[in-house]
Amino acid sequence: MESMMIYMPAILAVVGLAFMWAKRSWVLKQDAGDGKMKDISSHIYEGALAFLNAEYKLLSFFVVGASIALAAIAYVVPTTHYLIIVAFIFGAFFSALAGNMGMKIATKTNVRTTQAARTSLPQALKVSFGGGTVMGLGVAGLAVLGLTGFFILFFHYFMGGEWTNTTQMTVVLETLAGFSLGAESIALFARVGGGIYTKAADVGADLVGKVEAGIPEDDPRNPATIADNVGDNVGDVAGMGADLFGSYVATVLAAMVLGNYIIEDMGGNIVDAGFGGIGPILLPMAIAGAGIIISIIGTLLVKISSNSAKEAEVQKALNIGNWTAIALVAVASYFLVTWMLPKETLTMGFFVGGAEGFEYMDIASIRVFYACLVGIVVGGVISAVTEYYTGLGKKPVLSIVQNSSTGAGTNIIAGLATGMISTFLSVLLFAFAIWASYAFAGFYGVALAASAMMATTAMQLAIDAFGPIADNAGGIAEMSELPAEVRERTDILDSVGNTTAATGKGFAIASAALTSLALFAAYVTFTGIDGINIFKAPVLAMLFIGGMVPVVFSALAMKSVGKAAMKMVEEVRRQFKSIPGIMEGTAKPEYDKCVAISTEAALKEMLLPGVLTIGFPIAIALIPMLFGYENVLIAEMLGGYMAGVTVSGVLWAIFQNNAGGAWDNAKKSFEAGVMINGEMTYKGSEAHKAAVTGDTVGDPFKDTSGPSMNILIKLTCLIGLVIAPILGGHTEGDIPNEEISVGMENTINTEVIAEDISKEVQVNMTSEGGETIAKVRITTTKKGKTTVQQKTFIGTEAEVEKQVQDLKDKA
Amino acid sequence: MESMMIYMPAILAVVGLAFMWAKRSWVLKQDAGDGKMKDISSHIYEGALAFLNAEYKLLSFFVVGASIALAAIAYVVPTTHYLIIVAFIFGAFFSALAGNMGMKIATKTNVRTTQAARTSLPQALKVSFGGGTVMGLGVAGLAVLGLTGFFILFFHYFMGGEWTNTTQMTVVLETLAGFSLGAESIALFARVGGGIYTKAADVGADLVGKVEAGIPEDDPRNPATIADNVGDNVGDVAGMGADLFGSYVATVLAAMVLGNYIIEDMGGNIVDAGFGGIGPILLPMAIAGAGIIISIIGTLLVKISSNSAKEAEVQKALNIGNWTAIALVAVASYFLVTWMLPKETLTMGFFVGGAEGFEYMDIASIRVFYACLVGIVVGGVISAVTEYYTGLGKKPVLSIVQNSSTGAGTNIIAGLATGMISTFLSVLLFAFAIWASYAFAGFYGVALAASAMMATTAMQLAIDAFGPIADNAGGIAEMSELPAEVRERTDILDSVGNTTAATGKGFAIASAALTSLALFAAYVTFTGIDGINIFKAPVLAMLFIGGMVPVVFSALAMKSVGKAAMKMVEEVRRQFKSIPGIMEGTAKPEYDKCVAISTEAALKEMLLPGVLTIGFPIAIALIPMLFGYENVLIAEMLGGYMAGVTVSGVLWAIFQNNAGGAWDNAKKSFEAGVMINGEMTYKGSEAHKAAVTGDTVGDPFKDTSGPSMNILIKLTCLIGLVIAPILGGHTEGDIPNEEISVGMENTINTEVIAEDISKEVQVNMTSEGGETIAKVRITTTKKGKTTVQQKTFIGTEAEVEKQVQDLKDKA
């Protein structure tokens, strides 16, 4: 059984994908309605496909470019193999595939939801949530399948499917990082491009249609209305999917890297584990795999029976599924941790005190489970905090509503202040998560906290994707001029979807933040530095630059929306003027022209932020090299940059998402009417107009720049991770492609230098063909405290032996 | 001559104050105009006094509370003396005195400027700039006099006026930190409270007066108009003055602390300096003193001759004075550096490489001058960048103007984006300043870069304070219904004042940021830690929390403005309704009620942000102590917090100031008319209304929350500095008050542990009465690289000797 565990997550992923396929067939079998509905739905479907195709074209150029860069890294760094390129391409392909599947099913489900809503609400929920489930399981299944599949492949290719040593495993994991990088690159395109697309279409449709021409939302006479509906799918479905796909993969990968370092800390071999000696590496994959099955159970619990149900019942049904899934993940984590980790204790390196405080300690392996609990709980609470700050009827939103009565200015100030204040609790929680999960189980604990939180990704995405599907379904009902009760039913789903969208964003930020931290920890271990000292001026300078990048990135994204929206406005105006009969409904607008404008603008405007994201970490690694800086210092500088991006990125993500969400719901509050200064105030009032202005500002915040922060911080840390081996003190060389025969030699040389001080030099040599890799570890124990230095040498056997001897002499 | 240098800065400060007094007498001798003008002016004067008195009352409570806290610190920490309380009280008093003098002269000068404007523009400039000069020299003079005066006092009290050792000097400087803390605490009240005051009055006056009642700005019928004019003085004059007073003192102090560490790095005594052996400590004071005289020269160059001059000529006159002063500071720095520092080389500890890369290097002392140049140049360029992003007719402001045509929403987005993008260049420059000044001369270089930049503070403040004076003068002209030409002349001055206000804010941010860095460096050396490693989870958690605080602080400040403005709105509405004849001008509004509302609200609303600022660093130091964390780790955690606050605070300061400035000038652009889509657009258009909304949002940004960031980051780092000795590895004990007799014993014990490794243990014992202080320094040289550890022991001679012996045995 145990030895099979390496295949288990992949098998569970396949089970998830099979369930997904069955669900998909069921959804597609549902009635797609009659003529006009079908017509509109196929417009949306084609618009979405048009965007995807244009995106894939651009992506293919990017993939080629990035592959060349990776080839260069593989050439320079001995522990990075050329297979990283293959992994990268597949990572990009799998992520794109997941997005493609999600978009397709979402755009097929919308019309079926509309049709189902003609019969009953429970049926409409079943269909729309079914579509969401397909999306969720597709993303999670492909993520786990891809990651674990490549791990199995590389584990066999580099290590012959059996544990050799941590250096070899590092090669496996560094190569696997390519998969994660590929996935996150697609997320950049999908999230940022998608965010620009959806808001350009939305603003364009609203400004000319609603404001200038005075026709209602989703009116088929509006040329931008199809683009607007496509945008919901591009941004909220594909963008969110790619974001979570990337987080899922990166989190598990980072945990695996840190698991490998646990094995190293335990002497390079775990004796008491029955999982091929790689229990700590398999554990995060196992939790991810279990999460897929748990999510299936969760989705099965989401149903309502009464046709007269309201928002509360629908929300409750979703909550039951979600909470059950989260609780089951906690239970599963307990069993997996106790089963898969060395039974009693793990040895881990901790920073416990000052500069000399790096200590190896034996901790009870159950503490890894506590770390998982921290992740699960904090993920849930951060979602709740997000809901509080953005929820209808809650104090922050009501305060924005009150401030709308004195005009747009005060509405905006209140919204900005709400977003800013909301960082308080979220960041405190987040700091607590870092502190607690580290206190329990070091950075491995931090990574597993993230893994446990991410385990319900499929369920989260199902809940998240059902919102835009319901939104689309309502649009189709409106455009097809169906009876009001249909729209009422889809509106109930849409309204619940808005709440889940907010909590989903909270989940996405929390996961991105924890993922980045895990990657950050993996980065430090990959580079072999023993810390990032911000008291070094160049490191501090990079911390400042890192802090600035999310701010500038957000501004660029916001400006892009503005530019793209302007183009859309002009096009819609042109059509209204030049197509006779368009306002009377006798002539059809040219939907495809608007779709093309959004598509083109989104992809073009995405380039500059993309260059910023990718260019800065590379420049920070390369420029100081040209100036002859030591690799160790450069590694710290890049680490400082990563920390700056993460800290500032998390802040700006929370600020922008919550401010945007709060403005949105402040505006929506007027639909049912709100009490301002003792008077009921409705849509169309001056206060409502002020709230609409606030929402205009909030739109790019919550749908473009805010969510992009997730990608920015993760991608920054992933690029750092891929660059890390260059800075990791390796010398030139390469590991040939032929099967590696592993020879091993272990020299231990302990000497007592002074009373109470002892030095141990441990050499781990792996040789193969003309190449020898030596990993030297010098452990100094002083007054019971232990510090460890590590170096890796690569070269011919004679060279390496000489270097090792030199080091021993010095030690 | 050389031995007198310790008194020189104080003497120069007295010269500056004497010049200030002469200028003040000249200004007060000018004609204060006739009845109505005098009446209005005295209303403003009394309003300002009312605020000051209320503020001082609140402050006295604060000072008592803070003194008790300082007494506790002095009790616990042996190197912190009870005299720190005296220094603190005087720091607060001097800062308050400077603010008081500045406010008084500003409110006396305004009416004299109006009167002067009746005769000619050159005369109006002379009077208004004269008032600014009084303010500038008062602030700078008192800052330098207070700091150097207390240094002389403590130097004699603790060290008998002669160099003994760095430990004693540390006691002097730690006690002196109280002066800086006192000054910065007043700045918190003046900047934040003043910021809330000025905007509450401004928004209140505008919303009811201009918008609801339709009467012009500064109309005497508006009850809030006096409060509005008082606000200009409270916020822009006293607030800015207190801010720069604090920066000036803190920068010089930090440089002195780091200068002391240079002496320590050079073996505890400098042999070749002729300045009582404290050249590196005196240098920053000398530059500050020279800066006062140079600023006087600068102010003398500011004049125009033609009565038909326009903005450009006035700006040019100010520029000539400013640039001359900056250039002279560069020259003075060159001579002072080469004269006062050890002739050829300085020994400094640098981080040059990785974890073991702390190295002692001999650097040419001229490199300290290069660091000064970096500060001077970067300060100038950051001001220029600020001017670009906020200047009338520049691309960013024009783009906001264009975006106003599609409504308030797009105007707001454009303004936010401008503020965010403006962080790019500013932060890059700032990162460059850190990197370059450190590369030239370590953190001493960073501190001297800040000192050199701050040397022209008096000149900067003169330029800065003249703006609000001109603004007030215009208000008085309007309220007194003087001929249009008078208002035209004051408007020219006001317009130039707006530009200088923007660059002044750039200067204030840059100085606050560099000051914080210098304090940060001083903090690290005070605590004796050898770095801040953000790879330690608790430190990383604090970096996140530190990053969050400026965001929440800003939100609190913005909300405070909103609340206070609402109260003002209600009061103005009440007066319009209940005072018959007020709109006809036959009855007088109750100005004092509005002044009282602003005063009360400002002081009340300031408490929560104040508690946040002061509470967090104290909590971070105390709570982990209760949990038994090691002091060294706590010191790193607090350092991480300080870095987080600084990085995030600088970003939010630049973002908010520049966005606010840009919105303001976008609105102002409509006064002269702007071209939008090929059409000239003026005040009163829809686009203008959108721009007014943007300005409403920008007002608290640029005048309340933005400038408060400066205080937040400086005060955070100062509190850290005062707490530092608690965390600095000292044991319990105290240095008695009696004159200290210094005994010195120097043991050197070098042993070669292994080939290429040598250890040197150096013990420096100072004993007095029953107390012995031992400073032990262990220098390890490995492969030519040197690392140093230091410990301080305090206790009876026997105890200390035992501890030292233990350490020697271990080393």
From TrEMBL, chains A, B:
Membrane topology label? Multi-pass membrane protein
UniProt entry tagged with the keyword Thylakoid: no
Which of UniProt's keywords are assigned here? Answer: Cell membrane, Ion transport, Magnesium, Membrane, Potassium, Sodium, Sodium transport, Translocase, Transmembrane, Transmembrane helix, Transport
Q: Which domain of life is it from?
A: Bacteria
Q: Name one GO molecular function term.
A: magnesium ion binding
Subcellular location field: Cell membrane; Endomembrane system
Q: Which InterPro entries match?
A: PPase-energised_H-pump
The answer to whether UniProt assigns keyword Membrane to this entry is: yes
Cofactor(s) this protein cannot do without: Mg(2+)
Looking up Pfam families in the UniProt record yields: H_PPase
The annotated site for Determinant of potassium dependence falls at A501
Q: Which reactions appear under catalytic activity for this entry?
A: Na(+)(in) + diphosphate + H2O = Na(+)(out) + 2 phosphate + H(+)
Role: Sodium pump that utilizes the energy of pyrophosphate hydrolysis as the driving force for Na(+) movement across the membrane.
Instruction: State how it assembles.
Output: Homodimer.
Protein's recorded name: Putative K(+)-stimulated pyrophosphate-energized sodium pump
Organism, as annotated: Salegentibacter salarius
What gene makes this protein? hppA
